[in-house]
Amino acid sequence: MFKAVIIAVLIIILLSLTKGLHFLMKDDDQSKKMVKSLTIRVVLSIFLFLLILFGYWMGWITPNQL
Fold first, then answer.
1. Tally of domains in the chain
2. What region does 65 belong to: left with phi over 0, alpha with psi -120 to 50, or beta?
3. Which of 27, 33, 48, 64 has the smallest C-beta neighbourhood within 10 Å, fewest atoms?
4. Measured distance CA(22)–CA(25) in Å, rounded
5. What is the DSSP letter of 59?
C-alpha cells in the first residue's frame, strides 16, 4: 500500500511537470498558470521526500542489504 502511494505521488508530480511545460510553450498571456503548476510540483516533491523518510522511520521500507 505504501509503495502504491509513492508511485501515485510520482505520477502526479510528472503530470504537474508536463502541465507546467505545456503552459510554458502554449500560454501566450502573462498568467500565473505555469508558476502555480511548478509550485505544486515542488510541494509534492517535498511531500514525497518526507513521506519516504517517514516510511523509513516507521520501518515500512528498508534499504537493500548486500
1. 1
2. beta
3. 64
4. 5
5. T
Q: Which residue is listed with cell 511537470?
A: 17
* Cβ atoms 1, 55 nearer than 8 A: no
How far, in Å, CA of 36 to CA of 41, rounded? 9
Does residue 47 fall inside a structural domain? yes
**Alpha carbon of residue 62 to chain centroid:** 21
Classify residue 40: in a domain, yes or no: yes
| Distance of alpha carbon 51 from alpha carbon 61, whole angstroms | 11
For residue 17, what is its C-alpha cell?
511537470
- Residue 19: enclosing H or E segment and its boundaries? helix 2-26
**What's the domain range around 41?**
34-58
Is residue 20 assigned to a domain? Answer: no
Which pLDDT tens digit goes with each residue over 31-66?
A: 777 888 888 999 999 999 999 999 999 988 888 865
Whether residue 18 is contained in a domain is answered as no
